[in-house]
Amino acid sequence: MIAEKYGDQIQAILARYPDKKSAVLPLMHLAQAEYGYMSRAAMAEVAAVLDLDPTHVLSLAGFYTLFYEEPVGKYVLEICDDLACALCGAEEFVQMASRKLGIPVEGTTPDGLFTLKTVMCLAACDKAPMLQCNLHYHEKLDEAKFDALIAQLRAEAATVGD
Ligand code: FES
Question: Domain boundary residue among 63, 86, 109?
Fold first, then answer.
């Protein structure tokens, strides 16, 4: 339970806001970092800490693409396929990524490393094709750059796993 495990951290977050309700997004990030995704149980925990209706937390989790309602891989690759990016080859880029990773969009690799998603505009329209990996943008991509990114992330995961 995050309330027990992160009591001091939660109090520090709450102290930054005029009311408890305003701390909902930081607490959702804390819960997602703990559990890997925002399960219904995690949403209920956040709601309980903040005296909110769990449906309020659920609505936020559904609105923000960085909250995951299902388990995801260590690296979530979110490729923008909105209009501007689509005109610059995003659909073909998504197909290439899917083929390279061996998973469909919304799928996760069997090793749990990568989840592939498509998202609406990430405000980097002039740098398409682009993707967001966790909180980092990767722009003006092509197949070679995608291969290099995947290799780098695999190496990073192997190092952290040691
Ligand atoms: S349409 Fe892709 S970043 Fe804006």
Answer: 63
